[in-house]
Amino acid sequence: xxxxxxxxxxxxxxxxxxxxxxxxxxxxxxxxxxxxxxxxxxxxxxxxxxxxxxxxxxxxxxxxxxxxxxxxxxxxxxxxxxxxxxxxxxxxxxxxxxxxxxxxxxxxxxxxxxxxxxxxxxxxxxxxxxxxxxxxxxxxxxxxxxxxxxxxxxxxxxxxxxxxxxxxxxxxxxxxxxxxxxxxxxxxxxxxxxxxxxxxxxxxxxxxxxxxxxxxxxxxxxxxxxxxxxxxxxxxxxxxxxxxxxxxxxxxxxxxxxxxxxxxxxxxxxxxxxxxxxxxxxxxxxxxxxxxxxxxxxxxxxxxxxxxxxxxxxxxxxxxxxxxxxxx
Length: 328
Hints:
Elements: H1 15-25, H2 30-38, H3 42-56, H4 61-68, H5 73-93, H6 98-115, H7 121-130, H8 155-164, H9 169-180, H10 189-200, H11 211-222, H12 232-235, H13 237-251, H14 261-273, H15 277-287, H16 306-326
Helix pairs in contact: 1-2, 1-3, 3-5, 4-5, 5-6, 5-7, 6-7, 7-8, 7-9, 9-10, 10-11, 13-14, 14-15, 15-16
């Protein structure tokens, strides 16, 4: 029986990651080492290292691991992830040491890419740090795009990540974040163009088909959203078209247990908003028992409030399940 109350957990359906996270937060890194050693592909490796680093960026557990196993590539990559996460958090907080943390993170990325030249994560990390360069002072952050209609940016960094793991989900999301920070081309015009460009060439099953939905949510957030259902934003032809494309080209081919909870949540949210209740119910079932704060929080009067987001999530899920039952 599907759960009534949604659960927030960064690891989602990845049970081995949940266990490793618990140990790592307690200061024990052996299970993390074993988990990363056994991670079968670059996509999952990227996702797991990001979640692990985000969870322990405020502790020294990864530094302890590196001290005890100085030749561990996994420890070096996770250490790089931690430094990048600290720099990003300092930037968001306007911390005076942001510049120092940024430089440390860039140095760690260079060292990690030399240590593990086949790994996409050091290049994903450099893409993450590109958004800190708000003045676009670094040459590598204002390179001409590969096609007309796209914006100047850190295209060589994306190409390096893409070469190692074609269609790497986080790499393209980091590039999208970079586009959000640009001021030219109108409100999110460049970001939407990039998302459409990336999705157009993505194979079936690729998470890149979700990128346009993220831009729709960002536009929705900037416009202060709405609690209405149906909502004109999501029932508009381009939003509905992108939503159904993501459903058929991604969800119908992907393994829910190996997918990002954020991707599932964005698709469920868009289908619900477009009144595609039957299909939304399928995605809610794949999410069960988990939930994310975003994008549901933008349907509330208190963005960032996890409890308010959960209430919207539960209402949306109930509406979709009821509509599905009524058609049987």
